[in-house]
Structures are given as structure tokens and as C-alpha cells.
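re: ur question from the group chat, yeah i did fold both. here u go
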Amino acid sequence: ENIVLFTPYIFLETQKYSLHFECSSSLFLQSHTCGELRPAHVGEEVTLWLDFSGLAKMYLKKALCDLHPESVIRVKGTARLQPDGQENKEMPTGEVEVLAESVEILNVCHQLPCEIKDFVKYNLRLRSQLVMKIRDDLCYVHGGLWMLKTPTLFKRTPWGAKKFVVPSREPGQFYSLPQSLQQFKQHLMVAVIDRYFQLARCYRDEGSKPDRQPEFTQGLVQYAWPVLVGSNNLLLLLRFVGQIKIGCNSLLGSVLYTQCIRTFFISIQKHLKSKDQEPLKKTARSQFNQVCLPHVLKNHAAFTVRSRPLLGKAQASLVFHFLWVVDFPLFLPKEDDPGQLDSAHHPFTAPLPEDTHLLYSQSHSVHGQHYDLVLNRCEIGGGFILILKASEQQYVLEIILKDDPSLLSHLLEALDSGAHPHGGIAWGLDHLVSIIVGTPSIRDVIAFPKSFRGNDLMSHAPDFVSENQRKPYHISVKWPADGEGNQEK
């Protein structure tokens, strides 16, 4: 019989332990894991199948070569030492091989719907370990934070990104999926939960970009009586990063927002061609001022810089560098109505103490207690100290932003119930992991990611709902007609 070399699926060995099943019951398909075999196992009868732990070398009958890749087999055989000169010192199992005595085909793979990508499995395992490290550090190592869960069904508010709505059985009434944890965390602080963290799903109906998708995971650390970021005491987010050895320090530098904008603007001038400078000059001539400068850079210059592919490759070769950006303006002119102000971050951010008096006279000059965390020039998180007094919060909503404060009556009532100073930091877990593993898209670090159009390629969601299924929710749909107008169903 012809003998060939067969190697099970190769995967990066990320665990420092191995699994061993002592029970010989038929419920257990393995006696050892593939990455467990060592010279100490020589002479033992082993039962293996494909697993995550590593690589095992086996000798199988040539007839099995006709099996399609990813078919599932169980191999029983005897472990023995590799012949002299054939050892692989680079592999933990490189001194041992298995001579197969019986092979059971458990299932045959006929056709794969997509390409198997090893790096995605590596990314997901790293993400899992990262999340476990976050929970362990925040719960047991750094101050005993509470880990809490907040609702997924919430109320729609007019601020922030576009939201997904969920119908209820009450006519005309809808829930909204939360786009952030903002209001929940404020209520928990008022409820005398003085420190807590959360890893939660959030939802935003935004356009398709490599670092965005409809549902994403947001991490949050929230403290009562917080210390401002300048003293580097809000670095719980980074401590676990340092322990996985990606080259960051425990103490970070900070830069003023205005200094950051000025430095960035000057540094890109020499890299812009004349045709790239013209949109900047045109915008500057028409409505240039310090307040609108971020929008100019965001819409024109930043796009030009990000479009250089070599820039990302050069960045990937560098060590990871973190930076705080502080002293953001509290308000910016609205894009559709420059005469009105809009929140630069969100309407709950507190002004700097020295700027509080300007809130009632020169609102456009107020700086906020908001800070961004930047990793290799990519924003991965943002923190803030929140407005404490209900009267101040109502003034911001009603007078400055021209919004209806009754939409947040529950929050105003909570602040009036004796809220203490509170603040924290939130970060995008998907974005952070994608930077750590060096992939340009967060879809490479998410299980069951959505497509760029927001579709689930496995279940083909979103899908149509029949009229009978819509009826309990009092929903009618207007379908585009072939002719003029719309037809309602």
C-alpha cells in the first residue's frame, strides 16, 4: 500500500495549555489534541481529529487523498519518533508522528461556500483572549469595576447617528436600538454605582466603510468622581494592551486639539499637489474660520492623505503609539445651518471649568471636557466628563442646541436626584482589534460580519416580511411602483 504524508489543519498555537481526555467513552472523539503530542507520548495509542491546538504529522493510506479538503476524519494510531533528520525543531510537535491504524470518515465536505481564511480564525481567537483579559483586569485587578448589561430596546432621540427602529404592538410606537451607552451609564452613576464597565452591542444605520458596520461592539469604563485624563489615571483601557506586548507605554502624552489641527494642517501642505490644495483654498475663501477648520480637513485633506496606500504599510511597520487629544470645542456650527450650533461630541459633555461662564454668553468659545484616544493616527476611543446639573443640561439642550428637552426628561430628573461628578471612556473594540492584528477592515475581526451594504450573507437578511406578519405591528409598506407614484400594501 502506498503511504503518503497527511497534515491536519495548521493553526497558530495561541494556548499555553493542552486538553487531554482520560475517558475512553464513545462520547469523546479524541484522546489527545493535535498540538499536545511530545516524545513522552511515544508508544501510546492516540485518537485525533482536527482541532485548534496545533499541527500533528500522520501517515495515512493514499486512498484518503480523494477526500475533499475540510472533510472530517477521526484517526487512531500509535505515536512514534520521527526518523533521524526529519524532525522539525520549529514545531512543538515536530519530533513525533502518528502511524495511522484506522481512519473513520465522520463527514464529507462536498463544496465550500467560501474560502477558508486562517487569519480570520487567528483574529477571532485573539479577540476572545483580549476580551477575557479586559474583564479579568477591570473586575479583579484594577479597582473592582462592576460588569453590567443595559437594554437593547430603547427610546429614539434626535442626536447622533441614524438609528434602527423596532416596531412594537402599540400602533405608531417604536423602540430604537441604542447607538451608544450614553444615557444608561449616566443613570447608573446617579444610582450610586460608582464604577462599572460594559462590552455591549451598539447599532448605527450608517454608510459602508472599512471601519464601520451596522452593529458593532463598544467598550466602556465609567467612574464617579473621575480624575481628568491629563494625569493618566483613566488608562484602564490600555493596561491590558501593554500585557499582550504590543509596545505601548503605561503613561501617554497629550496634545491640545488646536495644536493637533495646526500641526496636521502644516504637515500635509508639502505633500499636497496643487489640484489637492484647491478645494481647501476654495472653502477657506468662502467660510474659513477656526471653528469650521475640522470640517475642511475632514472632507478634503484627510481624504487625500488616507488615499495613499503606502502610508498604511509604513504605519504598520511602526511600534504602536498612543496619544490623548484634549480641549476640543464644545460646539461647532451645524453643517446645514452655520448660524446654529451643534454638539462637537454629544450634548451631555461638560464644559471646562474655566469656560463654564462663557456657556451663557459666548457659547461658540467654550471648550469641553472631552478627549480622544488616538492609536497610530487612528481614533479608537473617546472620553468625557459629563454635565452634572439638570439646569445646565437643560440650558444646553433648549437654548444652545434648540432641541426639545422633554425628550430627555428622564435624564433631567435623574440629574436632579443628586448626581455626583462622573465620566469615563468608550472605545470601539472591533476597531482596536483590527489595528492590533493589522487588518484594514473590522469585518476581519467580527464573527458573522455584515457586508458593505449591511447584508447578512449567510441568512440573506434583511428580508421581506409578509403582510400578515406586519399586521400585529400596524405597519404598511409603500413599494416603488413601475409607473408613477407609489402603491401601498
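okk and heres the other one u asked abt
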Amino acid sequence: MPVILALTQAHDAIWALGPEGLFTVDRGNLTAVPQPDAQPACCYHDGERLFVGGATYGLAYTTPDGGWQASWLDGVTAPVVCLAADPDHQHNGVLLAGTAGGGVLRSVNHGRHWSVCNFGLFDFEVLSLAWAPVQPAGAWPPVQVVFAGALGGVYRSPNGGRGWKQVATMPAPVLTLAVAPDFHAGGAVLAGTEGGGLWRSDDGGYSFAPVAGAPEVVNALLALPGGGWLLSDAERIWRSADGHAWTPLDLPPALTFLATERGVLAGGMDGVFGVA
């Protein structure tokens, strides 16, 4: 089975992507789909088109005739390694892309064109991105919070990725981020690192502290829609009700998670599998 680095869903279809290419997923079975990147690293479907990021083309998206179109990336040639959509992107068209050397790219037209948005960013190796949920109506001041994980720590943006401020310095690259569904009430954010452990914020992502007893290597995180968290290290998947105490599950490790209406899917070294 191929290694899977990213999962995405639109309508009833699920796609998986890894170094060996792009696949559709049907009950754990993978069917290869042609895609243009020589070194694919991430994928995302916005409901209308499928995006693939990596090296060679940076970012490409599907066209109505079944082909692929390269996105204009504001002169950035670094590989695109992560993608994240504003939770209100169907209306505002905002998508973010993290690159391995070019910082953050931002699109306001559903991914057709991108602009560099590195104001306040001092580390241009952006390995992970995660948006907070849409702010409750009437809340003040209005914010669009999004987080970026880089080689040296976590950055926070209050304005949808237009500007950034480093909120935590960490001893290892930040591979994955997850924001609680009740973020605007509880303020919880988790950051997983490659050898520096799990870090947590309870103040809306303004500061982070290490989580005692959590795995040192955190390759994937998921904030469950109904509450609770999933984490994967290099050996297995872990579950937590509160993000502090973690219980190992009898499941192989994962490199990515996807929450669907039918449950959680995980992608890893041996393809795609379900997480009970």
C-alpha cells in the first residue's frame, strides 16, 4: 500500500495523496488518479476543484475538462507542503499554503492566484497550518485566527494570514497543529513537534507550554468535532478527552487524519484506515 501524507473530502468523494501519487478512496481501497506534481506533498478539495501541492508545479488544481492548471504563486518556487482553507472560504475564497522555504501564500479567489503573506514571519519553512473556527456573530473585535507551524515554533495571525506574530519557540519543527471546535470559548490549540513533544495553549494561541507525558514525536493531530483529540506518534495512535492525558490505541501510526460524517480516517505508511 502507498504511503499517505494527506486526505481530503468533497461531497461523497475522498482523496488520498502521498509520494506515490494521488488516489481516490473507497472503503480503504485506493485507485490511482493522474496528477502533475513529481513530488506531491499535500492536497485539498474546496468543493469545486481539487488542489495538489508539492514540487515541480508548486500548486495545481483541476479544471472542468478533467485537466490540471498550475496556480500563479507570486514568484515563489519553493515546494508547497501544506494547505488550509478559511472555514468561511466558500464565501470569501481565502486559502493558505505553506511552503518549504517561501513562507506563506494566500489566495482570495479560490486558489487561482496567490500572494506572499510573510509580514511578521521570520521562518519561511512552514510545515503546518490550522484555522480557528468562524468567530461567533457579534463578537468584538472581529478576528480571523489562523496558526502556522514552522521549523522553530508557532506563529499566530489574527487577520486571516495577512500578518503573523511568533507566539512560541519550540525545540523541534512543528509538524502538525489542531484547534479545538470551541476555540472561541476555551482557547485550546495543540502543536505537535518532531522530537520536541506536544505543546498546548489554553489562551487562544497567545502562549504554549509542553504537555507532560505526551509522546515526543507527534506526526499528526486532530481535534474531534464532538470533543476530544487524536494524536499519532511513530508507533501508534493516541486518544485524549482533554488534550492532557493520552491513552494509546491498538492502531498503527498515522501521518494524517480526516474527520468525516462516517468517522475518522487515517493515512499512514500502509495506506488509509478507519479510526474507531
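fwiw on the second one: Residues 89-92 form the longest helix (4 residues). The radius of gyration is 17 Å. idk if thats what u expected
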